[in-house]
Design a protein that fits this description.
By secondary structure, this protein is of the alpha+beta class. It contains 11 helices and 10 strands.
Length: 363
């Protein structure tokens, strides 16, 4: 009998030592010490034994049970500890994981395109400035060398503001308007900073037009670089890298003569069409139809530009901007136009309708 007890104890202890989880240990406890287990039954039936054996067997069985219970308790403590460690490692919060919240919105396409343009110019060493949307006739027209009878100055061509005592008078000029372009910031920037100067000015501008490619309010980015010996070659180099950054590394640009009051010479810049690769035809389609984007010309107009007219430099009234000492180029581009060309948006007005079906395509 005592042999059997020793066997049960040894078997129990071996099994307990080999247990690897708390659950397994609990099963072992039931199997070895539970109500149906052999050892406790043995103890329970000690009274059936001959009196001479009772004491010895009872004592041995009791010791075995206690030893086994102690072994189980010790192993349980060990397992709890390792299981806790494992749990802590598994539950560790990885603060670098992205959040799981549902996305709640995105940038508007125009904001994205504006930021892309800003990034390109920041990379080229330009600063980003902003300017007032209500402007004086002086900065919007006169300082930019517009003749007195320039059509843009017409009342029907421009949103004039009623004179108001609440608006600060500037340069003795109380007549204010919603700026028709971002170009007034050219002179404002030169008044505020010494050359060399390289800035871009993104912002809202206003004109009384409304159709598929014009809205009364839209966005432009003005650019101005003034330094010693800036030439058309600098203009072409900068705008080529910009065109490539926006429309793809394969693009080319060409300069077409044009007229703007505030640049001399003035040019319009065309970029080779990114839809047809500048060929004018959709070669990958059967019958090689004419490219609808560039209308078969291979070129798309993207902005106006030119070398800053000496009169604009003189309008600053600052000797630092003496046209005999410094030169530069300026340009202006429409953000909506760039966005429409780049993403194939067919109607400008879609950009202002806030229809999620459009916005979500670019979120
Ligand atoms: N301000 C012109 C417009 O709104 C665009 C422009 C053309 C800006 C030539 C310039 C420039 O700086 O040099 O149509």
């Amino acid at each position: 009998m005592q042999e059997r007890i020793a066997e049960l104890r040894a078997a129990g202890e071996a099994a307990v030592a080999a247990a690897t989880t708390t659950e397994e240990l609990e099963e072992l406890r039931v199997r070895h010490l539970g109500r149906k287990a052999e050892l406790p039954n043995l103890l329970r039936n000690v009274s059936d034994l001959p009196p001479a054996e009772r004491g010895v067997v009872g004592k041995a069985a009791n010791q075995a049970r206690q030893a086994l219970q102690a072994a189980i308790d010790a192993r349980a403590a060990e397992l709890r500890e390792t299981e806790l460690d494992a749990q802590l490692i598994a539950d560790r919060v990885d603060v670098t994981l992205p959040g799981r919240a549902e996305p709640v919105g995105g940038l508007h396409l125009l904001t994205r395109v504006r930021r892309d343009i800003e990034d390109v110019f920041l990379g080229l060493g330009f600063d980003v400035l902003e300017g007032p949307e209500t402007e004086t006739v002086h900065y919007n027209f006169d300082a930019l060398n517009h003749e007195p009878n320039h059509p843009a100055r017409d009342r029907s061509d421009t949103f004039y503001l009623a004179p108001s005592p609440h608006l600060p008078a500037a340069d003795g000029d109380r007549q204010r308007l919603l700026r028709t372009h971002t170009s007034p910031m050219q002179v404002r920037a030169m008044e505020q900073q010494d050359p060399p100067l390289a800035v871009i000015v993104p912002g809202r501008v206003y004109r009384p037009d409304s159709d598929a490619t014009h809205t009364p309010q839209f966005h432009q980015v003005e650019g101005l670089w003034i330094d010693v010996d800036i030439t058309l070659a600098d203009l072409k180099g900068v705008l080529l890298s910009v065109a490539r950054a926006i429309f793809g590394a394969e693009r080319d640009i060409r300069l077409r003569p044009h007229f703007f009051p505030f640049t001399e010479p003035s040019v319009e810049i065309d970029v080779s069409c990114h839809l047809c690769g500048g060929t004018g035809f959709l070669r990958h389609e059967p019958g090689h139809p004419r490219c609808p984007l560039c209308k078969g010309t291979g070129w798309i107009e993207i902005l106006g530009s030119g070398l800053v007219d000496p009169n604009v430099l003189l309008a600053t009234g600052r000797p630092e901007y003496d046209p005999e000492k410094v030169q530069g180029f300026a340009f202006g581009m429409g953000i909506e136009r760039i966005a429409m060309l780049r993403y194939g948006v067919p109607d400008l007005r879609l950009l202002y309708e806030n229809d999620l079906r459009l916005l979500e395509q670019f979120a």
